Amino acid sequence: xxxxxxxxxxAMSQTAATLTLARMYQNRRxxxxxxxxxxxxxxxxxxxxxxxxxxxxxxxxxYNFDEIPVKGEKVGITMRDLNTMYFTPAAISRERxxxxxxxxxxxxxxxxxxxxxxxxxxxxxxFDGHYCGNLPGATHFExxxxxxxxxxxxxxxxxxxxxxxxxxxxxxxxxxxxxxAVMETKELVIIANGKRKAPAVKEFLTxxxxxxxxxxxxxxxxxxxxxxxxxxxSLL
Length: 236
Fold this sequence. Notes:
By secondary structure, the protein is α/β, with parallel strands linked by helices. It is built from seven helices and ten strands.
């Protein structure tokens, strides 16, 4: 594992953007998976103008690693947010986005493996140790791509409804790449910022590997980089 501690959110975002962009410059197909959420917002602001209208980056294909379907909508919450933060500003063509959704999840791993697997994944770290849709009590280390009940844990329904305009839009399940699928990715980069993430960062680095803290298994990955700002690293 590589640990990079930057001074602040801006510096952390610059480093994460640089690492992500660097993986794109290959003379072959590159398959990457990127995270939604608030943490990577600045990363994508930095990346978008570096990628937009660059035909020499048409070799890059994008995969979302989780999705919250929305009744009555063509795209789920994750893809909606990725469109807003990155795909639209960067003018990524639809042909280079391979969505995970309620129609494709049963064959998504087959598609990924058929093109050589995922080369790179940018992840966030949740306060409770979750990443992708792998929340405590929701998935297990042996899972690949799975459906998770919207009522899997006592607070799951509440967490999902926060992302919706109306409660009745909630599906009975959401989708996520499980730990086994994520661990197949050739390179992982995790980003975390702010004092609120400091306890999770400390637990990730010093705690035991267990399903109750889902991200703990990622410490076993042979090519993992953790990028923090000083506040997120303040308890180390």
